[in-house]
Design goal:
The structure holds 2 protein chains of 2 kinds.
Chain A: H1 7-22, H2 25-47, H3 59-89, H4 91-96, H5 102-125, H6 137-164, H7 168-184, H8 197-204, H9 207-219, H10 230-253
Chain B: E1 6-15, E2 18-28, E3 33-37, H1 44-51, E4 59-64, E5 67-68, H2 73-79, E6 80-83, H3 95-105, H4 110-123, H5 139-151, E7 157-161, H6 169-186, E8 189-194, H7 197-200, E9 205-210, E10 213-218, H8 220-225, E11 230-235, H9 239-250, E12 255-257, E13 260-265, H10 268-278, E14 284-288, H11 292-300, H12 304-312
Parallel strand pairs in B: 3-8, 3-9, 6-7, 7-8
Antiparallel strand pairs in B: 1-2, 1-4, 4-5, 9-10, 11-13, 11-14, 12-13
Classes of the chains: A mainly alpha, B alpha/beta.
């Protein structure tokens, strides 16, 4: 018997992620509404005390790209968490003993999570005019592609973590410890330019900061708040996603799940 | 090399300091059925996970259809169907969807999928549940759907890990008759683990697994006839003194077990009268052919259910 190849199984697993996601309305709403409320509450609450120099627009607008990133982060990471449920319920075992190659399994799961995250962020991108951004169709497509690459990296990161962690509680712990600081130090909530030198150095070595920066450049070319040129951000984000994907794959190739 | 058999050579596995499997060897001819019988925590599941390519043995070799599970896991997976203790299904999806995804994972061609899925559901008797979500199914039905899933690619070798655990007797019977129907169709080799002797009896070969060791491996008949004749169980009064009395006065080596005195005798029926005469006022005397349970006791020195409790701690 010949093997099933790569794309058949990968597509099947991605599709399953999407079907499952849309069958759980609480997930759909949670991944969207939480950042939305966060944006409105924090954005308008901090808006009065946040005074960018040189007649820059307000904090709601500053925070907007950060919230897009937060949606991508939440959705990717939560999708990857389903790996832990899959293992508990036995579904993962049946996938692992199927002849589908490990690469297809990791890719299917990661791409499925990334697709969900991207769809969620698209919904939020439609609110861009509320934050004062005008989006040309081409820009919109570029944004979606960029967000997909970021999502792949975050989904793969979630996969690599979920592969090693046995409980959803543990996963939440790691998430709070690692991912929230990653987001807070990405330039999403405050600009690198305003940070102290050591903090700025940390922020510049945070791959998610290039996600935030690229997003800003795409939403508002020539923005004062980006830390790198768009090509640099794209390169860093792509490199990060690829690297994390390979780490996730290496983990999944070990015989003991 | 055996085409669709299973060969296990001196396989050991350790979880840290704990030895889960110690030097296990056996082989299974193509088309045979094998039951690994033993208490929970005895190492059966570890062995099955090694054969299913999910766990690497610490030492030793295992081959499935001639392929080494360590070196060629991907090739091994193309001939395997596996049913685990918890069904390998997505509970949020319907029965039909689950099998559809599985068909794509195993590379069944689009043109064949419909007929394969229909056939697998029919053979396991769950066709009527096709549109139901798995989370709505009873435990027994979910197991049969899982069996259909494992069978979809028509595997040459089926591995089942305690597939009937938690099922009531009727659901167990249904599960095994579905398995028999599938085997009749494909002639697959089957290896399953169980802690129920009645489930092991019908296998071509039975392996007794306890504390990581394969204590015996043979056909059930050979195993039971390894006990010298019939098993005589005598109840009445204190079992320890009763056993001592039987040995002293009649010369049969008896021991106390579960509130009774038990001994083996080549012609059990003949001893009943002598016992009744020698010990007036006995509660009961029973003579039985030895079961796999008795073989287990003889080989390991433990009863299966007490070994079960010890394993659970």
């Amino acid at each position: 018997m010949t093997g099933p190849g790569f794309f058949g199984p990968a597509l099947a697993l991605s599709q399953r992620e999407l079907v499952r996601f849309f069958r759980q309305p609480s997930r759909v709403i949670g991944a969207f509404a939480t950042p939305l409320i966060f944006w409105i509450v924090v954005g308008s609450g901090l808006g009065s005390s946040f005074r960018p120099q040189g007649g820059q627009p307000g904090y709601l607008r500053y925070l907007y790209p950060g919230i897009v990133l937060l949606i991508v982060l939440f959705t990717s990471i939560f999708s990857a968490m389903s790996l832990i449920e899959d293992r508990k319920e036995g579904f993962l075992q049946s996938v692992l003993v199927s002849p589908a190659p490990r690469s297809a399994i990791v890719f299917g799961k990661v791409a499925g999570g990334a697709a969900i995250a991207t769809l969620q962020s698209i919904a939020f991108l439609l609110l861009a005019p509320l934050a004062g951004f005008r989006l040309e169709p081409v820009r919109f497509v570029e944004l979606v592609l960029f967000l997909f690459v970021v999502s792949v990296g975050l989904s793969a990161l979630g996969f690599a973590m979920a592969w090693r962690i046995d409980s959803t509680q543990g996963y939440h712990g790691v998430m709070n410890l690692l991912l929230m600081p990653m987001w807070l130090l990405s330039g999403s909530t405050f600009p690198v330019s305003g940070a102290t030198a050591p903090l700025a150095a940390v922020m510049r070595s945070n791959p998610l900061a290039y996600g935030a920066s690229g997003l800003r450049e795409l939403l508002e070319p020539g923005t004062a708040f980006s830390i790198a040129s768009l090509p640099t951000s794209v390169a860093v984000v792509t490199g990060f996603s690829l690297a994390v994907f390979l780490v996730a794959l290496a983990g999944a190739r070990r015989a003991r799940p | 090399m055996v085409e669709s058999g299973i060969e296990v050579e001196r396989v050991s596995h350790r979880y840290g300091a704990r030895e889960a499997l110690a030097d296990v060897s056996f082989s299974v001819a193509p088309g045979q059925s094998v039951a690994l019988l033993g208490p929970n925590g005895g190492g059966k599941t570890t062995l099955l996970r090694i054969l299913a390519t999910l766990l690497l043995p610490t030492s030793g070799t295992a081959r499935i259809a001639g392929e080494d599970v360590r070196r060629e896991p991907q090739r091994v997976r193309t001939v395997l169907g596996v049913v685990f203790q918890s069904p390998g299904l997505d509970k949020k999806l319907t029965v039909g969807e689950n099998l559809g995804y599985q068909a794509r994972l195993t590379g069944i061609r689009r043109a064949e999928r419909r007929t394969r899925i229909a056939r697998a559901l029919e053979a396991t008797g769950v066709s009527a549940r096709r549109a139901e979500k798995v989370e709505k199914l009873s435990g027994g039905l979910a197991r049969r759907v899982d069996l259909a899933r494992a069978f979809l690619a028509r595997p040459r070798i089926l591995l089942l890990d305690e597939p009937t655990v938690g099922l009531d007797p009727a659901a167990r019977r249904d599960f095994w008759s579905a398995t028999a129907a599938l085997r009749a169709e494909t002639g697959a080799t089957i290896l399953y683990t169980t802690h129920l002797t009645e489930e092991a009896r019908s296998a071509d070969r039975v392996g007794l697994v306890d504390r990581g060791r394969l204590e015996a491996f043979d056909s059930p008949d050979v195993l039971t006839s390894s006990i010298g004749g019939d098993l005589v169980t005598v109840r009445g009064g204190d079992p320890v003194s009763l056993a001592a009395g039987i040995e002293e006065r009649l010369g049969w080596k008896a021991r106390a077990l579960d509130g009774a005195a038990v001994f083996e005798h080549p012609r059990g029926a003949e001893v009943v009268v002598r016992l009744a005469e020698a010990f007036p006022g006995l509660g009961s005397i029973s003579v039985a052919r030895p079961t796999l349970e008795d073989v287990f006791l003889r080989r390991t020195g433990r009863r299966m259910d007490t070994a079960d409790e010890e394993a659970r701690g």
